[in-house]
Request: fold
Amino acid sequence: MSLVDSPAPHKPGLEPTSETTARKGNISVRLRSSLQQLLAFGSLIVLVIFFGIMNSRFLLPTNLSDILLSTVVIGLLALGATFVIITGGIDLSVGTGMSLCSVMTGVVLSYLGLPLWMGVVGGILMGTVIGAINGFFISFLRIPPFIATLAMMLVAQGMALVVSGTKPIYFTSTPGFSNLALGKPIVGLVVPNAVFIFFAAAILAGIVMSKTLIGRYTFSIGSNEEATALSGINVRSWKLWIYTVAGAFTGLAGVIIAARLNSAQPGQGLGYELQAIAAVVIGGTSLAGGKGSIVGTVIGALIMSVLTNGLRIISVPQEWQNVAIGVVILVAVYLDMLRRKETAQ
Amino acid sequence: MSKSIYNRRSFLTLTGVALGAVAIAGCDTPAAAPGAAATAPGAKPYIAIVSKGFQHQFWQAVKQGAEKAAAEFNVTITFEGPNTEADVDQQIQMLTTALGKNPAAIGFAALDSKAATPLLEQAKSKNIPIIAFDSGVDSDIPVGTASTDNKAAAGEAAKHLAGLIGNEGSIAIICHDQTSKSGVDRRDGFKDWIAANAPKIKIVDIQYAGGDQLKSTDAAKAIIAAHPELKGMYGTNEGSAIGVVNAVNELGLKDKLAIVGFDSGKAQLDAIRGGVMAGAITQNPVGIGYETVKAAVAAINKQPVKKVINTGFYWYDAKNIDSEQIKPNLYQ
Amino acid sequence: MTQQVPPLLAVRGVTKSFPGVRALHNMHLELRRGEVLALVGENGAGKSTLMKLLSGLYVPDHGSFDLDGKPFVSNGPKHAQELGISIIHQEFNLMPDLTVAQNIFIGREPRRFGLLSEHALNRKAQDLFDRMRLQLNPRESVGRLTVAKQQMVEIAKALSHDSKVIIMDEPTAALNDAEVATLHDLIRGFISLETGVIYISHRMDELKLISQRITVIRDGEYVDTVGTAETSMKEVISLMVGREVSGEQRPTAATAGARTDVVLSVEGLATKALLRDVGFDLHRGEILGFAGLMGAGRTEVARALVGADRATFGNLRVRGADVDIPNPAVAAKLGIGYLSEDRKHLGLMLERDVKENIMLSSLTENSAGGFIKEGALRRTAEEFSKKLRIKTPSVHQLARNLSGGNQQKIVIAKWLVKDCDILIFDEPTRGIDVGAKEEIYKLLDELAAGGKAIIMISSELPEVLRMSHRIAVMSEGRITGFLNNAEATQENIMELATRRISAIPGAVTA
Reply:
């Protein structure tokens, strides 16, 4: 309490609204956000140039195409994880969830003998179900995301083995299935379908993130969940939707990995979630929520696969590959923090 | 107040559901809870088998062999293994539990022999004989080891690959693990044979991909990109070998690169039938399981047990893949 | 008091209880059309409960609310908004990572073919700002704005809803005078024959400027409503506390002998951001008050002194020895304790008990070989808890469960245990109710009498006047003057506090 009858403060008039200063502000705001992405992209280019110098074969079109192809699965998982992480959550179930989705595709195509498109839909649908269950436990039963998705990670791992009978499912009855990932959209092109599917999914994710209510509330919830709720937004049901959307990307990843291996491998997937999270984080998305971008995640996933491929190309032993990737994660996140601090001032 | 009661009730409900689930799961397990059966007079001797894995078909084949022997020698067995070959801790837990049940003998395939040593000594002090199998146990305690001689098997793979590329040129290895005994033996057995018998062959790269098919594929493609002169590749287990096959398929290099593999599985069998892969080494998993139990029964009955029980391996290719000798040891 | 026209908003006999607490009892309140009604009351008087009832977060046990003469029940903030009642909480409901426009139109995003249109959104926001003559960039993210601008976003959000009633909780708590003036202009612009504002504030000077009537509540009950023009602030305060305020008590001058004993001497202290050439001496047994307007740099002086912020220039002498204080740990070693204004975030671990809080910074002295000596900890904590009259059943009580005054005492105890003889108090009575304030004052007096040297930063002039032996007044990062207690008045403090440095080159440093 200020118990003071102080002299009336001087009353300056409202500052005049100046169109020009507002314009200038807009440009600087836009510049700042694009600069951030530019810097991430810059580090990717630097890596590519570095490996190119170390071994010129790195830059061969076939190898660059391989890098893109090896980005696809982790990249798709990372797209979904981006949504979850921007809300301030985490999803540990994407790795084994992906395996369950590929098993589901296998069940639809090989066990039930249904047409190819239904297998694709079945896999993606399985992903959305996993996401919706995660979302339900997190938003309606208030179980912390870490715990809920940890539980789902185990459930999905177990269910993938149960449903498949602990055996890989092969796509013998649908010979065209692997073309989904490895076919070429145009004859003679080096880059296979999976890469185009990934970039199409990334564009879709980008649109959802920036142009739809789901995307807007993803940022809003991550930024201040309480305030979002008090603004009259039904945070619970939107969170459920956000996890469901994230699950759809897990499902797509499951379909693509099944197509690429021409089999659904129930035992794999564990550890993929951490790589996906790493890609998201390298891409500048904050684990505290509220900040991030799909473009960043795509770049992050590319950085991961360029590193892995490049280190292999120059024959760095695997144990050192892991060390290098770990260091890159630390450096990327630290640089990103510095960058944000600078632009905030 | 009312809230805490509600919570307690829902907790009880959850516990109930969980117990129910466990009970249902338990129904599936034959010969559940053998407990003190081993000491009860007139009961069948109980042998606990702790393997390195469970889900994989290889281990299922081992289990099959063990069950066959159990029926033959009239003993009870349990067979369990950790989720992945990285779960050393989980395996130690399983071994601890098995010891707690006071079995007549234990069959054990160590993920990490050093980590298991105290438990093995405990077993020794209780006079429970240990039969090692598969990659074995790096210790003097087991009375015998039923395993594939991985080094000799890898040498056989090297011999075939060398023949395929005319004893000269560059080759590379996709290995599943750089720390486990099987990974090391299958790599070194191969390398040693090449060094001793085919000096003109150069191993230009060895990459490790944990036996994960996708990672093995990407690793193989990176090696091929870096070494266009490559004439052959060797994958040290099913996932690694399939990774090499995938890489060659994706790059359209069939007939340009000779591939030899290890173990079986449908994709590998298809690759051999389809000519992408020259051939592979198979172990004798059914035999491993069978010999383990057989040796355990011998140990229980105080009969002599051979220190090394070689369960054998076979080279198989498109020609002999369907032969009577090979077929039972391959799994889809 | 019946009127011809029904009041815009009326609270009629509302009662709300929580287990063990009656937060509101038979509350009355009438907001007339076209007026700004000030709502005042001590902390815990029931203001926030009333706001939560109006916004529909709570349901009243008894009573009703009328809007335009018709009863209404709000079932949540969104519903209240739709009814035309906007509430601006002291802690903003803003999403820092979203842009200004995105924040204002959250839940009402303009869409084209189902997709959000950022362009339409920003234009809508710009239209609103132009109408309100607000200087805001719709594309800027809210987290980058100053508190004052964030406040404007909140108000713009309220106005964008075509609200009839805006309720503002302590809207000027973090604003400087110019910003307060802008806010008041906005409020005046908003007020029409169909609208009204309920203005909750502790700053009596503002109420004079902006409100027409003042409603006073105390202990969850309605006390009185008075016309602002016809009342004095003293009267309002006595209504609030239910008794006359002892505002004029002056400290006994520190003993003459002690005055010569300089324990802390500061010369030419400056920081990159704000401080310029700050210098003063602090004596044993002295309470040196720091007065000044919000943002004058008082807290910054304290932070720079203890090394929490980096000082660019400055000579420090502690007990006659030149020292360099790079971080608060060094300050503590030198016996300088800083009690920050934000106790809850910076001074206390709310979820730990009294003992742990008191002993936190003295753990190394109370451990052997890395093991903590629990017994010694408890004994010391109990001793100081007794000495400072901390009201707690035991030292094992969680800090959260204690009142603001007792929490403050815990923080004080923490530094006393550490044997600090220079104590810097930043707003020592913020958020503490009147009765507990007396306790803290008494404690500060005792500490000074016992030979501690104290710097007390306070925004409340009566507090400064009552407690300080000497007063340093700051403006725009400099000390504009020192006043002895005998010569200090509210008027001459305010005169120094509002002195523009630009007008007086080579500012005064006593």
